Task: structure prediction
Amino acid sequence: MTTHKVGIIMNGVTGRMGTNQHLLRSIKAIIDQGGIKLGDAEVIMPDPILVGRSEPKLAALAARAGVKRYTTNLDSALADPANQVYFDATLTGQRPVGVRKAIAAKKHIYCEKPTATTSAEALALAREVTAAGLKNGVVQDKLWLPGLLKLKYLIDTGFFGKILSVRGEFGYWVFTGETEKLQRPSWNYRKEDDGGIIVDMLCHWQYVIQNLFGEVKWSKVSAPYLAKYQDLIRVFFEEVRQGHLKVRIMFRQNVHEAVGLTQEQIEGAFFRLYYQFIKHAFGIMHRPPAGEPTKLRLYFDEFPETKEATAQFKGFLLALKDNPEIHGAGFTLAREDIAEFRSHDHVLAQCLDIVLGAMSF
Result:
């Protein structure tokens, strides 16, 4: 039997969630069952190292879980090449620090939710780990609750027909400790310590709603639904084969990395790529100047930028006709012909998301 050991840095596991949900019920359970079998002669075995601030607590937890490795030095754990994965269950406000250290150490990332106390910080972390080319994920455990699995099955089999609206209610009792034993940490109502029921639970709602009722996306492709996604993509490419759809994809070379960029250039990278795609992907600079000009209509998936930045980008597109490389080409583009749409409402855009996701994977 060939055993592949995967070193997992488990930071912050002396807390309630880290101990119970992630160490004892997950990693220890996988170890106890003999690892994850890849076949009759191959198995993946987690090899955790517990990280925290209190050595006595770590020692007690390691003995309880049967784990041999623990340390109070995160940097040394990150420096060990045997540790391939970094898991973070520290306080939410501290999480970005540990995650960024792990990114710098080229470790794959798995985090408790929420990944940060603000959406801006959470998005920044996601972009940084993606840019580093590391596998990454965030806890989405509620998707596997028996009730939600049954609900997903009913939705997929058409039991409800067309779903027009959704109302969900979720909660739990938090005892005060006066008449019943306190079963939740005070972090649940200490906003000053980055806690609170809103920051704790709304991130659950986001992925539950998106996965149960949202659009089809590459990030949702999984074994239980693989056949359905394959059927959808077969239909998509049949439309391409018959000439009903034309697909253009621009690849960005990463051989040479730009250096010395200004902050404005870095922040505008998203729109700069879009601009070059429109400029080069459809041959507009080669449209003959004579005859009836081609009228362009551009539909973009909703831009994840400010209104000001989006308006500026649209202005650049309108000025394409004055670009020296394009000047005189036979096309027109009006402001009302530059529009945004929600991919959630358009299955063709969703199919393209799956195609692009599969290519990058």
User: Anything to note?
Assistant: The CA atoms of residues 252 and 290 lie 33 Å apart.
